[in-house]
Specification:
Distance between the termini: 27 Å
Radius of gyration: 26 Å
CATH architecture of one domain: 7 Propeller
Largest sheet: 4 strands, antiparallel
InterPro entries: DCAF8, TPR-like_helical_dom_sf, TPR_rpt, WD40/YVTN_repeat-like_dom_sf, WD40_repeat_dom_sf, WD40_rpt
CATH class of one domain: Mainly Beta
Strand content: 25-35%
Keywords: Repeat, WD repeat
Pfam families: WD40
GO cellular component, one term: cytoplasm
Shape: globular
CATH superfamily of one domain: YVTN repeat-like/Quinoprotein amine dehydrogenase
Protein name: WDTC1 protein
Number of helices: 18
Structural class: alpha+beta
Low-confidence stretches: 232-237, 306-347, 488-496, 644-664
């Protein structure tokens, strides 16, 4: 983090009261605090897994819900149990929420008995019971703008809305996912934008995350009721459940193509948690079976698919991020995100030399790469990229490290880096070649062949290198293999978006929405999310400086948001950490999981003895989690039972085939 003059800021805060909020936000969660984060206390009182946690707005109360069907309200600052009550549920509680503007008196719970209950804490009574869902209720969402209204997501595929001002004991269906995705779809999580309560994000079965405009949905239904022809239907017309523009989908660009492979390996993709950043401009998703993704809701980008470099012209002006003269554009056109480099001759801006401190970081990254420390190299390159975002060489080098590491999603991140490098330097030789290799690894075989042909035309001196020949052989073998899929990936939409089962038929409206999906901005790796479907990921800090997530290995992981670098891993549970809820205004974190306790974490004094819960080998923990995610489900079950599994390789987790070791001049070393 950037250096700050804390003495000056303290004086400014004392003199000018308006500076207090800025001071709090800047120093709320800082890097020194993160590195001193440790266990403060364990709150004991539940007799089952603690599945949900919720702070009140002031941060002086913490509510928890458990498999024991009880909810407990704690005074976390004094480590005291204030209230414990049986909720009336007959199965595990999965969600607990304070109703806004109720003076922390009203608490809402959702559970595996398909029920939603509303409780008055002052009298310890359940005052409303809703039984409209037909499957487990996984999440409750509230909104400050609508203090009497809340929403629920359940595994019957429905998002329901409740208004406590209504006399009716029933709720209304706001969104029915089964109309779009078939009867097997399950809604797992939802959240309301804290800055604009009209927007609701929903996570469900599959890799797509949905963002809805509640206001548009209500207006559409009102207009349908008021329309004179509302009750008259013909065989030709069709009433849309949602109006055009009321929904926007988000997806990690590589996941739809990988979905059939995941299904074949019984690996389930499902969004287990969604949350907005404090300013409402970003959406964070913990994707079960995969990684944690951050989507930018302001500067959106289409997935990097259906991309092909146009035919290039001459070679040799600028290669591998190094500067020459008379630069020529290669005219790359990214069909789906609308980015275009003009064809023909164009000015290539000279590559600015890195400042000495960044040059040192780059050299450290190159040394880590040479030692096959792929994650360390990636983190160092990412640190440099944050400071020099227009340096093509850094993107090209990071792409090489991603391709060597081969964790889930690494080849797609490498592809994105290659494209960025080429956009900054259209004649970056290694980025062009790596782009072809990434396309091949991502199963875009025909595109990879065309990209490789383009590379050979642009850089004829490399056309017969060992790396080029090896990739050419791989591509042609894949193209003509009888075991290759009968349908061509180049067709795009139908392959990416089609359902695979009989009951999960996808509607035409759903197909259109999926085809219009936006891609992620950042990806966070290291944790494992395959065993439970309530695992959370959250922003940490008023300015969302950090990302935190639970994991199947009993740890929780903390990343820097902007660099995506892993900075801290702490052992938070004997089995699995599911819940992580940061305090609204302090560097204070509440976690829970399979253990029947709530754990509280804050920065420990510098004089305190060594924190025994710190996972020192973060790289080893991350690699083990990648292997766990790619293991056979039976092996994972045995791992959870304590058996040692052999035969899992230590490197290259992610299921990709090894690249040819003789990469020749093109790819063997970073620049």
């Amino acid at each position: 983090m950037a250096k700050a003059n804390i003495t000056r800021d303290i004086i400014h805060r004392q003199i000018k009261e308006r500076g207090a909020l800025g001071f709090e936000r800047h120093y709320h969660v800082t890097d020194p605090f993160i590195r001193r984060l440790g266990l403060e206390a364990e709150l004991q009182g539940h007799s089952g897994c603690v599945n949900c946690l919720e702070w009140n707005e002031k941060g002086d109360l913490l509510a928890s819900g458990s498999d024991d069907q009880h909810t407990i309200v704690w005074d976390p600052l004094h480590h005291k149990k204030l209230l414990s009550m049986h909720t009336g549920h007959t199965a595990n509680i999965f969600s607990v929420k304070f109703l806004p503007h109720s003076g922390d008196r009203i608490l809402i719970t959702g559970a595996a008995d398909s029920k939603v209950h509303v409780h008055d804490l002052t009298v310890k009574e359940t005052i409303h019971m809703f039984g409209d869902h037909t499957n487990r209720v996984k999440r409750i969402a509230t909104a400050p703008m609508w203090p009497n209204t809340f929403w629920s997501a359940a595994e019957d595929g429905l998002i329901r809305q409740y208004d406590l001002r209504e006399n009716s004991k029933r709720s209304e269906v706001l969104i029915d996912l089964t109309e779009y995705c078939g009867q097997l779809v399950e809604a797992k999580c939802l959240t309301v934008n804290p800055q604009d309560n009209n927007y609701l994000a929903v996570g469900a079965s599959g890799p797509f995350v949905r963002l809805y405009d509640i206001r548009m949905i209500h207006n559409h239904r009102k207009s349908m009721k008021q329309s004179p022809s509302a009750g008259v239907h013909t065989f030709c017309d069709r009433q849309k459940p949602l109006p055009d523009g009321a929904a926007q989908y988000y997806v990690a660009g590589h996941l739809p193509v990988k979905l059939p492979d995941y299904n074949n390996r019984l690996r389930v993709l499902v969004a287990t948690y969604v949350t907005f950043s404090p300013d409402g401009t970003e959406l964070l998703v913990n994707m079960g079976g995969e990684q944690v993704y951050l989507f930018d809701l302001t500067y959106k980008q289409r997935p990097y698919t259906f991309l092909l470099p146009k035919k290039c012209h001459t070679s040799g002006e600028v290669q591998n991020g190094k500067t020459s003269t008379n630069g020529v554009s290669n005219g790359i056109h990214l069909h789906s995100n609308g980015f275009r480099l003009a064809e023909g001759r164009a000015h290539v801006s000279p590559q600015v030399e890195l400042p000495p401190y960044l040059e040192r970081i780059k050299q450290q990254a190159n040394e880590a790469f040479a030692c096959q420390l792929w994650t360390q190299a990636i983190q160092l390159y990412s640190k440099a990229v944050q400071k020099a975002p227009n340096n093509a060489m850094l993107y090209g080098n990071r792409a090489a490290a991603y391709m060597k590491r081969k964790w889930d999603g690494d080849h797609y991140d490498a592809l994105r880096d290659c494209l960025k490098a080429i956009s900054l330097n259209p004649c970056h030789l290694k980025a062009h070649f790596r782009l072809a290799r990434c396309l091949f690894e991502l199963k875009y075989v025909a595109e990879a062949l065309e990209c490789l042909d383009d590379f050979k035309g642009k850089f004829p001196e490399q056309a017969h290198s060992s790396a080029c020949d090896a990739l050419d052989r791989d591509i042609n073998a894949a193209l003509f293999s009888k075991s290759d899929n009968a349908e061509d990936k180049k067709g795009g939409g139908p392959i990416r978006l089609r359902a695979t089962g009989r009951k999960d038929s996808i509607s035409e409206d759903e197909m259109v929405l999926r085809e219009r999906s936006y891609d992620y901005k950042f990806r966070y790796c290291g944790h494992c999310n395959t065993t439970t479907d309530i695992k959370e990921a959250n922003f940490f800090g008023s300015n969302a400086q950090y990302i935190v997530s639970g994991s199947d290995d009993g740890s929780f992981f903390i990343w820097e948001k902007e660099t995506t670098n892993l900075v801290r891993v702490l052992q938070g549970d004997e089995s699995i950490v599911n819940c992580l809820q940061p305090h609204p205004s302090y560097c204070f974190l509440a976690t829970s999981g399979i253990d029947p306790v709530v754990r509280l974490w804050n920065p420990r004094p510098e004089s305190e003895t060594l924190n025994g819960r710190v996972v020192v080998d973060m790289e080893g923990a991350s690699q083990a989690n990648q292997r766990r995610m790619n293991a056979d489900p039976l092996e994972v079950m045995l791992l959870n039972m304590g058996y040692r599994i052999t035969g899992l390789t230590s490197g290259g987790a992610g299921g990709s085939d090894d690249e040819d070791s003789s990469e020749g001049q093109v790819q063997c070393r970073p620049s």
